Amino acid sequence: MNKITIAIDGFSSTGKSTIAKLLAKSLNYIYVDTGAMYRAVTYFALENNFISDKFFNEEELIARLGDIRITFKFNEILGFAEVYLNGKNIEGDIRTLKVSKFVSPVATLSEVRRKLVEQQQLMGKDKGVVMDGRDIGTVVFPDAELKIFMTASAETRAKRRYKELLERGHNLSYEDVLENVTTRDHIDSTREDSPLVKAEDAIAIDNSNLTISEQLDRLIGLANKII
Ligand code: C5P
């Protein structure tokens, strides 16, 4: 069967990764969560005190990029690949509001983007991949056979993320989550290098009122037309 590249881009908390994981599973494709890679770099920056509420030592982070090794390892129990930083599983550490707060400034740095995009292109070079992020259809795989651009209202997205964080035991307010989602969207859409935009040939899907299985059926249908 013809293997293709599927790019799923969109705003924060549109449920891209949930649907991308399920789509990859049903097609027997590899799933790559590129947001986890930007979060891993941010986690490294926080651990090394390169970034805080008061400062961002961009030069130090850029100088240390060579010390960052990001890998993914499939977890049979969870059914998806977890992210590792220099051999340490950081899957649980990168989904906090703290990392979410600093990830978009880190992702504006061209040096960071170059390093991660190169690795993403290598991971997807043999096709048979579902990759989700912000610049997959525009920069990482501009020739992807299927490009999806996910949208949903900011409130819908913040509610979903809030519920998810509460379920994981985080103690925070809905307002904090909404603020984080809208701030990240703004930084991601207005940055100079690889801003979040819909690729011209991407299919836009507003999933505010769609169930996960409705979204999955739609995507499988689109993929099957090409495969
Ligand atoms: O997808 P997720 O919300 O985990 O992504 C976290 C952040 O990483 C985004 O808000 C964005 O700043 C950055 N990102 C990016 N390009 C990607 C994926 C994520 O700039 N391809």
UniProtKB/TrEMBL annotation:
GO molecular function terms listed in the Swiss-Prot or TrEMBL record: kinase activity
EC code: 2.7.4.25
Residue intervals of the Cytidylate kinase domain: 6-223
Transmembrane segments: none
Xref: InterPro entries: Cytidylate_kin (IPR003136), Cytidylate_kinase_dom (IPR011994), P-loop_NTPase (IPR027417)
Pfam families attached to this UniProt entry: Cytidylate_kin
Family matches, as CDD domains: CMPK
Binding site residues for ATP: G10, F11, S12, S13, T14, G15, K16, S17, T18
Major subcellular location class: cytoplasm
Places the protein is found: Cytoplasm
Superkingdom of source: Bacteria
Catalytic activity: dCMP + ATP = dCDP + ADP; CMP + ATP = CDP + ADP
Keywords from the UniProt entry: ATP-binding, Cytoplasm, Kinase, Nucleotide-binding, Transferase
Presence of the UniProt keyword Membrane in the record: no
NCBIfam families recorded: cmk
Family note: Belongs to the cytidylate kinase family. Type 1 subfamily.
Protein known as: Cytidylate kinase
